[in-house]
Every structure is written in C-alpha cells, then in structure tokens.
Design a protein that fits this description.
single chain; alpha+beta; six-stranded mixed β-sheet; five-stranded antiparallel β-sheet; transport; ABC_SmlMolc_Importer; ATP-binding; ATP binding
Length: 326
C-alpha cells in the first residue's frame, strides 16, 4: 500500500488554475522533491496534502484514508503529516526547551533527560540551544527548532516548503544533514519544495516538475537531468544546449550515434575535450569563462554554438578543439 496518493487534485484561483488534475503516489520512506517556477502550484499542492487548504476537486489518501481539508476539520491538518512552511513562527521570549515541552504536553520538564528526546535534539542539532531564548537564535537555528517541534508529534510524512531558501551555506548544509538523519533514523517519508537543483538532484528518489499547475515530468533525478522533456524542465536543473536536428544528425554520424541523436537538450559537461583516437568533432573556441574548478567554453560547430564544461585546459579563443560526447 502506498503511503500517499494524490488523485486528480485541482484548484482554481481568480487568475485560473493553480492545480489541474495532479496525480502521484509516494511509497513509505520515499523522498520526493517538487520543482518549478514561482506560481507553478507547488506550495498550494503541499498545503492541500497537509490538509491545510481545500482542493476544488480530487482526493488525498494518506495511509489509505482520506485527508479532510479545512472545510471538514475544525482544526486543519493531519496528525500523521508535518508541514513546515516558509513563514514558520516560534513563541518569543521562551527558551527552546520550553517551546518543545509546550509542543507536547506528554513531555515534562525532565524531558531533556529522556533518551528519545535527547536523540531528537541531537539529530536536529539543537541540543546545545535548549537554554537559549528563541529571540536569541539565528534564522537557521530557529528553523531547526521549528522542525524538532513538528517531529515531537511523531509524523510519518514530512512536508518542507523551501526549507533552504533563506539560509547561508553553513546553516543550509546543517539542515540538509538534519533532514537526512531524520528521514533515515526515524523512517520518515519526505516531500521537499526547492528551486535549487543541488538541493534536489542528490537527495530525492523522485522529482516532480510543475508548471502552471500541471505536472510536466515525474521521474528519477538522473532522467530529469539527462532527459528533460522540454526546455523549461532542462533550465530548472542547470545549463543546457539545445541541439538542432541538423546538428544532431551531423554529430551522430561523426560520433557513430553514441546516443546524441535521441536528445534535444544536452548538458555542457557531457561534451568532452579529447586527445584520443575516439570519434570526435572539431569546434572553434569563441569564449572561455573561468569558474575555479572548471571552465565553460563556447564552441562553434557546423555554424552553431554549443557550450561545454571542462576541467582547466590550456586553450584560448580561436583554438580548434577535438570534442566528443559521453
């Protein structure tokens, strides 16, 4: 049985559809990322799954039972689903320990001595913050406390709406480790919304790409990245080359196909500068950009420009390079 089933969920606002017949399933323990431009319906979908917003039509099934929206529940939400929004709030002037105790009355003031509580505090990297007041915390520390506050209720599904968007790199990496530990050690299933491909490609089991309230592509990170269905999807996950049919045919002939003919959108790092005897084509370097650990080189090939990503090479504009595709 699936943990979560999203069935024909639709919602319309004054401007048109926010969501239109959205469908997907999630297995127990599965990690799903939702990507898409602002206004594509991602946050609305997450709130509907959490039971915090009412769809116009469709059904959310969690553990086989229907999730009722706020029209049918006096207190919106589902006890098995934890939702952390971008606008989370913590009570001011309380200590972290007090916030966590008040979140679950079953945890008394000695909760910090309980092994289960101590393990949660450690997983959320807040065990050193218990005596601090919430107004003395950084944004990243507050977010981890808010996350621990949700986990106290022992949810089975964790929904995170842009959890990394306002964090510096240090706190972002800490939160990534926290989410990883929570999902693995507590067997939590997770759905995350994020704009950053680096946050999703290395983390998710599946990625759902949304645009204008529709699911454009639902696939593994590998296939989303290497075989995007359109330019919109390709652009969400990094730089890409759009290869014309004419150029693809020419390169496929030279490279003895090598899979290049079947792909319209090709990533820069899949083009390799080579000095070996393997099949390759020549391109003139027209621009070189330095990024520290790699370079991007614009190359003119058969009258068309493509970008390749390569390690540092001793090349300059005007040079002709031997290039292959892998």
């Amino acid at each position: 049985m699936s943990l979560l089933r999203v069935i024909d969920i639709s919602k319309k606002n004054k401007k048109g559809f926010e969501l239109e017949k959205t469908n997907f399933t999630q297995a127990i323990g599965q990690k799903i990322a939702i990507a898409g431009e602002t206004g594509s319906g991602k946050s609305t979908l997450l709130k509907i799954i959490a039971g915090l917003e009412q769809p116009d039509s469709g059904t959310i099934l969690f553990e086989g039972k229907k999730v009722m929206g706020p029209l049918y529940e006096l207190i919106p939400g589902h006890p098995g689903i934890a939702y952390l929004s971008q606008q989370f709030e913590l009570p001011n002037f309380l200590t972290v320990e007090q916030v966590l105790i008040y979140a679950n009355p079953l945890w008394d003031e000695e909760a910090e001595k309980d092994e289960k509580a101590k393990a949660l505090y450690k997983m959320c990297r807040i065990d050193h913050l218990l005596k601090r007041r919430t107004d003395e915390l950084s944004g990243g520390e507050k977010q981890r406390v808010a996350l621990a506050k949700l986990i106290i209720s022992a949810p089975r599904l964790l929904l995170l709406d842009e959890p990394f968007s306002n964090l510096d790199m240090i706190h972002k990496n800490i939160l990534k480790d926290v989410i990883k530990d929570l999902s693995e050690q507590l067997n939590l299933s997770c759905i995350i919304i994020s704009h950053d491909p680096l946050d999703t490609l290395s983390w998710a089991d599946d990625i759902i790409v949304m645009r204008n309230g529709l699911v454009i592509q639902h696939d593994t990170p590998y296939h989303i990245y290497t075989k995007p269905v359109d330019a919109y999807t390709a652009g969400l996950f990094g730089k890409y080359n759009t290869i014309s049919k004419k150029l693809a045919t020419s390169l496929a002939t030279i490279l003895e196909d090598n899979g290049i003919a079947s792909n319209t959108f090709l990533r820069p790092e899949h083009f390799i500068i080579t000095n070996s005897n393997e099949p390759s084509f020549k391109g003139e370097a027209t621009a070189i950009r330095y990024f520290g650990s790699y370079q991007e080189v614009d190359v003119l090939v058969f009258g068309e420009s493509i970008t390749i990503k390569t390690n540092i090479v001793n090349a300059k504009t005007g040079d002709f390079l031997n290039i292959t595709y892998r």
